[in-house]
Every structure is written in C-alpha cells, then in structure tokens.
Request: fold
Amino acid sequence: MTYYFLPQIPGLKCKVTIANFPCVEGFVKWPLRQHVYVTWSDGQQWRVKRIGALEPGEMNIFTEDELSKFDSRTAGSFVFLWPEVLPDTMDSLISSEHMETVPAWRANMQLVSSSTSVSYQGDYPRQMVELEKGSLFSFGPLFQTGLGISTKLILVNLRRSPIITSHVLRLARFGARKALGKVTIYSNACNIVNLSEFCDQNNTPLSLLCDDLAGIPIYLSHDPCFVNMSLEHTHQPAELFMFGARHVVQRRLKSWWLQTGR
Reply:
C-alpha cells in the first residue's frame, strides 16, 4: 500500500487525485470499496480520520482545505486508502502489500497557483515507511536558478512509528568543495526548505545530505507570483545503475558522499 502527501506552500493550493483502481493494463477488475483516511502524528500516536470513500473504479480529488478540517498540522498529514473501518488512533501505521502492483499504484499530487500548476506522482511507498533508519544523498541538477527565481525543497518522510524526531540536513556544493550550511528537518512530515540563499547563478548542482533520515526529495522552482513553476524529483543512486547488486553500489556511493560532505 502507499501513502499520499500534500505539501503546504504559502501561495499555492495542493490537491491529490486518488484512484481506486490500479494503473495496469488488463489487470483484473479491482473489487474493493475503500475508505479514504487522513492520518497525522501527535508525537505519541497516529491520529486517523475518515474523509470519504471510493467505489471500485472511482477516483476523486482531495485538497488541503479538506484536511485542515481534521488537523491543524497539515504539513504532517498523509492520505491513504484502506478497505476496513479503522479506529481514531493507531500505535503504528499499517504496512501491507495491499494495492501493490507492477507498475506501482499511483496518485497525482498537484500544486496549483492562480495561473498554472505542476504535479508529481505523490506517493510514499510501503518499503520506505518500514525504514526505521536511513540516510539521504540528493543533488538537484534540474531545478532552475536565476534572477527572480526561488527554489524550495519538499522533503517528505514517513515512518511507521508516530514519534517525531529532528535531524540535520547538510547542504554542500561539491564542485567548489564548499559546505554551505545546515537546516533542521523532521520525521513524519513534508518538510519545506527554502534553498534560494544556497543556489548560485551558474546552475552549479546543490547537494543535500542527511546521515540518519531517508525521504523523497522534490524541488520546486518558481517566480514570485507562481506564474512559472517547475517541479523536479531526484532518484536514489541505485536508479543510475542496471542489473547486479544495485543497492550495494548505492550504499557505497552514499557512504562516500556522506563522509566527504562533512
């Protein structure tokens, strides 16, 4: 199963389109009616509220406004589908192979301004939810820099445990062998980090490193009025390789970068 996230960015509205059918051509018709839940951590437990239901073959759009009716901490809210009625609180998130298909069961997360929008697949997979500890190395060669352009990092983390912990995200420019600074990020949240002060005008790739927290890094570049926007995601190092022990190579790469960036 997957969880879906809605980042909260001033000046933009966020919505997620969720389908109660898999994106697999010729797949057997999905038979289950599913409840739509929003969940967030209070630091001790997962709070759970039902916000709707989807019949087999249906889809619907859910917005941040709907989530705020249930939770004032919408930066740490996640949406998911489940066929059974759930209690109001849970000690840990559900981790199940429910809804797992190849290709993966997707949703669409959209950031909307008054004139345009950008979107991303917007799901957080079960395999990452199960990680009790991880690390992050990300570099963003695709996001835009320049006069009047702002860049924000959307760093999403979700764990089974409801405990919220703080972590240090380090920023560096390896081409110049230069450490740029540190910021605090949190588990079980959609962290929003303004990267504009760390970007230069030469489109030099910016590297992000965290020793003890994994997550999905997404980069939003935009002008002051959100007329022009770009949304980019960087993949984990294992995605740069085909065949073989890809994740062994990833561990070696991340270890080198994490040590070098100190």
Q: What stands out?
A: The chain has two domains: 2-125, 136-260. The chain has a mean pLDDT of 83.
